[in-house]
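Hello again, I could really use a second opinion on something today. Take your time with it, there's no hurry, and the full record follows here:

___
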Amino acid sequence: MSIGWRAVVEKLDSREHEDCSAVCKETAMAFLNAVGSSVGPLYATAFIRGAAALQGKSELTEDDVIQFWKAAIEGIQERGKAQIGDKTMIDAWVPAMQSMLQARDEGRDLQACLQQAAAASEEGMKSTSQLVSRLGRSSRLGERSVGHIDPGAASAFYILSAFTEAVADKK
């Protein structure tokens, strides 16, 4: 993961950023090219799907950000074919998305939506420690996977938490 995010920073530091969709596509490709595990294609798909929600935009509204996350998370789920309970990153991402959309439907601002999503993501991440892994490499561990948090779910929580903090810092 750290190799992928370093590649993203290197790629994005080297150019001007005007179109949000283009930034997402470049992020996707930099991450994918740097990360060889299954997480590379999953997060690349997230950024490509998120890019579609931001097409032609150089400034984002709060709703644009919500739609980015919705598209990104749906992309991860479609690409990985995982469901809640499979002990994957989906156990953190889907509750985060549902929580974010619910908060928005209740009229909350972006920061409140993100905070609620991050809290749901953390709960989802923690819940994976009680699950038996059914997909991916860790599925070979069977019952031995119980008692350990899924690394993908942890990455989901950390990414969303970092994004939430970054948005708070911009206010």
